[in-house]
Amino acid sequence: MFPSSLPIFPLPSVVLFPNVFLPLHIFEPRYRQMIAEALSGDRIIGMVLLKPGFEDDYEGRPPIYGTGCSGLITHVERMEDGRYNLILRGLEKFIVHGEEDPIAGTQYRRALVTTVDEMVPGSERDALKSERQKLEALLTPLFDGALAEHRLPQSMPDEDLVNALAQYLEFEPLEKLALLERKGPLARCRSMVELLEMKALMKHGDAGRVH
Question: CA-to-CA distance for 147 and 166, rounded, in angstroms?
Fold first, then answer.
């Protein structure tokens, strides 16, 4: 059963998606403690995005956005000085309902969450495949020949490809958060197609201007 509370790792520019891998370097003492305790338990932490203005209270409890994604620590390297290099695999999207009161001796934050089921229903499978093809058509010109096939593996399930592209493409953090907030992979894919089309139009518009 998925836990109803999670240790959270708030960052200003990182958004994790289900079934996508994320490398992290952990160096702050509070997050070293968080990772050490996660490794002695279920190895699950939650990734959330910090709201603008976090710099003023970064060492405290700056505001976070209300949608995040849990991740399972699949690989870990602990350095001699106590830092960690690790790999997270995205598990499930969640909604934050609040935070637990700090426990004496615990430096990191814990959020009260409920998970969001993103299972693709059979009735959406054909539409998702169609939207994936639109997405791939928009991205293929960015790669050359065989490289496109390598970057966009046809064997990857539709929802996994959508989530991987949402995480790895060069979108702004708030754009990625908006994609995570969408209701499932089909809506996420449609939004990503619209976003890429808009960016292409803006790029062509700028290129056509006389400076």
Answer: 19
Q: What are the φ/ψ torsions at residue 69 (nearest 5 degrees)?
A: -145, 135
Together in a domain, 108 and 12: yes
* 72 closest CA partner among 118, 127, 35, 29: 35
Residue of 165, 106, 98, 156 whose CA lies nearest to 135: 165
Residue among 27, 18, 30, 69 at smallest CA distance from 46:
69
On whether both 149 and 165 belong to a single domain, the answer is: yes
91-125: pLDDT as tens digits: 999 999 999 988 878 889 999 999 999 999 999 99
∠ CA 199-204-210, rounded to 5°: 135
Question: Tens digit of pLDDT for each residue in 140-179?
Answer: 776 555 444 455 667 899 999 999 999 999 899 999 999 9
User: 11 and 91 share a domain?
Assistant: yes
Last residue of a domain, one of 116, 133, 165: 116
How far, CA to CA in Å, does 145 sit from each of 140, 142, 149, 200?
9, 10, 7, 21
Token pair for residue 28? 């702050």
E strand or H helix at 135, and its extent?
A: helix 125-139
